[in-house]
Amino acid sequence: MSAHDPSTELQAGTELRPGTELQAGTEPYRRIRAAHTADTVTVYQAYSPALGLPAARDGRFPAAWKRERMTWIKPSFLWMMYRCGWATKTDQETVLAVEITRAGFDSALAGACLSHYVPEVHADEAAWRESVRTTTARVQWDPERDLRLNPLPYRSLQLGLSGPGSRAYADQWTVSIRDVTPLAREIHALLRAGDADAARSLLPVETPYPAGPLPHLGA
User: Of 28, 41, 104, 170, whose Cβ has the fewest other Cβ atoms within 10 Å?
Assistant: First the structure.
């Protein structure tokens, strides 16, 4: 997986049925939706088999996983499918579901800054540049995707971690790593066969994540 995912925002409330194509206005513009438990949250990444398969086998990232580089994690399964083309893009053929501690995830959110300058969030561009310089976590709000990977009118979180954040993610926060490539391929095959209902029924259930207000991230 590349060290940087170029891409570019939702309200607490109704549980979201996976893959449902909602109308504009029924979801807040920026919100984190994820599969989560009382202690963990699941995020997705895609790698070459050389990295992804050992990680899933051992339940931890191998030494070859570059801990000094920025890594981007995505709580949205369908956004990950958009990014990796249902596990068909080069070096993204292995899709991992990485279960991490909510404590680690929450700490990263609390210390993160937006990856781009937003006048409504930052006092001025200099203040934003200073936050970029002094933080190791970045947030981008990317268009959420429907079952056919079309953009929806609201945004989902992508969290970038570098330096101490990247190392903590790999070596401290990670609880389990699962290879969900077969699931991605099964859902994609059902879509190609025209059985959208069956495909939708297999999607991970993602509900609003209780992060609370995140004004420093525009949410």
Answer: 28
Cβ-contact 104, 171 below 8 angstroms: no
Q: How confident is the model at residue 17 (pLDDT cuts 50, 70, 90)?
A: very low
Report how far residue 13's alpha carbon sits from residue 50's, in angstroms, rounded to the nearest whole number. 40
Mean pLDDT of the chain: 89
Quick check: helix, strand or coil at residue 31? coil
Residue 3 tokens, joined: 């060290």
Q: Choose among 151, 134, 153: nearest CA to 216.
A: 134
Buried-exposed string 170-185: b where 16+ CB fall within 10 A, e elsewhere:
beebbbebebbbebbe
Residues 78 and 137 sit within 8 Å (Cβ to Cβ)? no
CA distances from 28 to 11, 13, 80, 152 (A): 5, 10, 20, 12
pLDDT, tens only, 92-127: 999 999 999 999 999 999 999 999 999 999 999 999
What whole-number percentage of the chain has pLDDT above 90?
86
